[in-house]
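[recover] target loaded
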């Protein structure tokens, strides 16, 4: 592997403008374009494309196009997950979604983070931190999940919320930044 890809996979600072990473991006671009163009195709055809695009796809996964991701190979989706229109999953670090999760329209799962130092940011340095979404989580429309966040199973995140820190299992969280407002039965 190339140095920058090795650094990215190790969770270290890397420059994404790298020929090997660009090849991965072009692969993803073609597969996302095929998936998005085949939204009306039989479920088997869509599942075949997802199987090639993503790292792991459980049984009964439904992702409504359009769908976009950075690489795809670092995304693992459990059984019976539903992802609504306009999802953006930036998977420079792993994104793991547990079974039976429901993801509303326009949800963004963002693993990359950028340098605060102006010179390093201008040079293009970034790193990424994994995102984990537990089983049976519901992310309302327009939710943004930031790098390094884990959301516990059975948690609900209200529409438009920005999740900047881990959320425990079995709670309702809302707002920007998202905060727990109550436990769920």
């Amino acid at each position: 592997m190339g140095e920058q890809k090795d650094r990215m996979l190790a969770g270290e600072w890397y420059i994404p403008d790298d020929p090997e990473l660009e090849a991965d991006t072009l692969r993803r671009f073609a597969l996302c374009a095929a998936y998005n163009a085949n939204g009306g195709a039989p479920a088997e055809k869509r599942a075949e494309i997802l199987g090639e695009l993503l790292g792991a796809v459980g049984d009964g996964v439904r992702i409504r196009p359009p769908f976009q991701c950075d690489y795809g190979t670092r995304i693992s989706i459990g059984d019976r997950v539903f992802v609504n229109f306009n999802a953006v999953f930036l998977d420079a670090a792993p994104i793991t979604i547990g079974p039976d999760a429901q993801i509303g329209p326009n949800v963004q799962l963002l693993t990359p983070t950028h340098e605060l130092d102006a010179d390093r940011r201008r040079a293009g340095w970034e790193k990424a931190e994994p995102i984990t979404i537990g089983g049976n989580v519901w992310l309302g429309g327009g939710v943004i999940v930031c790098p390094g966040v884990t959301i516990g199973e059975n948690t609900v995140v209200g529409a438009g919320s920005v999740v900047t820190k881990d959320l425990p299992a079995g709670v309702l969280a809302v707002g920007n930044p998202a905060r727990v407002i109550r436990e769920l039965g």
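[recover] notes: The first strand starts at residue 56 and ends at 57.
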